[in-house]
């Protein structure tokens, strides 16, 4: 990766740290060489990464190429599977709570 880009990322990281600004930034070139900088507390970094993923999913869904459409479909299927698992878990905990209250025999 271009040294100028790497230096800019490093300097941005330093400036953000000095100003107590949370940052999560990664840049990689076509051969996989890159630079990653993260500043802030873990919860704040998690928030930043979450926002990056949300933005990526929006862009992915707007793209009409075959690869993006296929990835968007997989994401939707994974989301549905996760929702189903969460529903099953909630149903189980409701039954368990009812059992402990004595509502189930």
Question: Which outline best applies?
Answer: flat
Which series of helices and strands comes N to C?
A: HEEHH
- The DSSP helix count reads 3
* Helix-residue proportion: 55-70%
Q: Which structural category fits the helices and strands?
A: mainly alpha
Q: Could you name the ranges where pLDDT drops below 50 across 5 or more consecutive residues?
A: none
Strand content: 5-15%
Q: How many distinct domains? A: 2
| Rg from Cα | 21 Å
Tell me the number of strands: 2
What is the terminal-to-terminal distance? 66 Å
- What's the pLDDT, averaged over the residues? 90
Strand count, sense and closure of the main sheet?
Answer: 2 strands, antiparallel
Record the strand order, biggest sheet: 1-2
How would you describe the overall organization of this protein?
With 105 residues, this protein is mainly alpha-helical. The chain has two domains: 1-62, no CATH class; 65-105. Helix content is 70%, strand content 11%. It has helices spanning 3-18, 42-62, 66-101; strands at 23-28, 34-39. A two-stranded antiparallel sheet has the order 1-2.
Write a concise synopsis of the structure shown.
By secondary structure, the protein is mainly alpha-helical. It has helices at residues 3-18, 42-62, 66-101; strands spanning 23-28, 34-39. The protein folds into two domains: 1-62, no CATH class; 65-105.
Describe the secondary-structure layout.
Elements: H1 3-18, E1 23-28, E2 34-39, H2 42-62, H3 66-101
Antiparallel strand pairs: 1-2
Based on the model shown, name its key terms.
single chain; mainly alpha; 3 helices; 2 domains; 105 residues; flat; two-stranded antiparallel sheet
């Amino acid at each position: 990766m271009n040294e100028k880009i790497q230096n800019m990322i490093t300097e941005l990281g330093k400036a953000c740290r000095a100003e107590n600004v949370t940052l999560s930034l990664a840049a990689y070139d076509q051969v996989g060489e890159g630079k990653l900088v993260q500043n802030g507390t873990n919860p704040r970094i998690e928030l930043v990464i979450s926002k990056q993923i949300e933005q990526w999913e929006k862009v992915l869904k707007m793209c009409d190429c075959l690869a993006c459409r296929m990835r968007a479909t997989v994401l939707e299927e994974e989301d549905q599977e996760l929702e189903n698992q969460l529903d099953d878990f909630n149903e189980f905990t409701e039954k368990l709570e009812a059992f402990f209250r004595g509502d189930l025999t």
